[in-house]
Amino acid sequence: MKSVLLIGLGRFGRHVARKLNEMNHQVLAVDKNEKRVEDALPYLTSAQIGDSTEEAFVRSLGVRNFDVCIVAIGDAFQSSLETTSLLKDLGARKVVARAARDVHAKFLLRNGADHVVYPEKQLAAWTAIRYTSDHIFDYIELTPDYSIYETETPKAWVGKTIHQLDIRRKYNVTLLAVKKDDQINPEIHSDYCFKADETLLVLGKNKNVQKCFHI
Fold it and tell me: What pLDDT digit, counting tens, does each position of 119-128 carry?
C-alpha cells in the first residue's frame, strides 16, 4: 500500500482515483471544484478543496509524506506547470504529471516532473493499432520501437510446437505466454503445441511483430 497525493479530479483524475482505490492505496485528492471532489469521494481516503497553485495550501498537505504525487490537471496547463514546480520545491519524492502535448511534457520535466504521462496520446495509439487489425486484441507500448501484443494464434501454427516453428530465430519475437478464457499460462516450453482457441502474448520490435502476425 502506498500513499498518493492526487491533484485534479477531472475525468482522468477520477479514473486514476478509482484504480488506486481498487489497488487499496491511500489517496488524498485535491481539486478546487467542490462538485468534482464530492463525486470522487467514494474512491478516496480523504480530500481537500483548494487551489494547488497556492503555496500555503499545498504546504499544508505535507507533500513530503506521500510516496507519489500525481498532477492530473488537464484543462489548465499553466496551473499544472505551477503545481508541478511547487510540489518539487516543497520536497515531493516523486511527481508524475499529465501532458497533452510534447511541448507541455518538456516544460513539465524542466519544472520538476519526474515522469510525464500522455493519456490521450497513449490511448490514440492503442485505438489505432487495436481497431485496424483483425488479429490484435490488446497492445502495450514499452518504447517507441518495442511493444507487447495479444494476438490470435496464426492458423499455420495450430498443431505445431514452439520448437518446430523456431519462433524466436525465424520471426525475432519472444513468446511470453498463452491465454485462454482469461487465464494466462506463462509456463510454456519448446514442446508446447499451439491450439486454435487461445491467444498469444508476444514481445518484440513493432515491425517484427507486425510482419509475423500480418498486422
Answer: 777 777 777 7
Vertex 70 angle, CA 67 and 74, to 5°: 180
Phi, psi of 50 (to 5 degrees): 180, 175
What is the helix, strand, coil percentage profile of the chain, to 5? 40, 25, 35
SS3 at position 39:
helix
Q: Quote the DSSP letter at residue 154.
A: P
d(CA 173, CA 162): 12
From CA 95, how far away is CA 144, in angstroms rounded?
Answer: 23
Closest of 126, 119, 124, 99 to residue 110, by C-alpha? 99
> For the whole model, what pTM was predicted?
0.71
Grid cell 491533484 — which residue? 7
The neighbour count for residue 185, using CB atoms within 10 Å, is 12
Which DSSP letter does residue 144 get?
S
The CA distance from 20 to 18, in Å, is 6
- Residue 33 binned pLDDT confidence (cut-offs 50, 70, 90): very high
Of 207, 158, 141, 151, which is closest to residue 175 (Cα–Cα)? 151
**Separation of alpha carbons 145 and 91, rounded Å:** 35
SS3 per residue for 70-138: EECCCCCHHHHHHHHHHHHHCCCCCEEEECCCHHHHHHHHHCCCCEEECHHHHHHHHHHHHCCCCCEEE
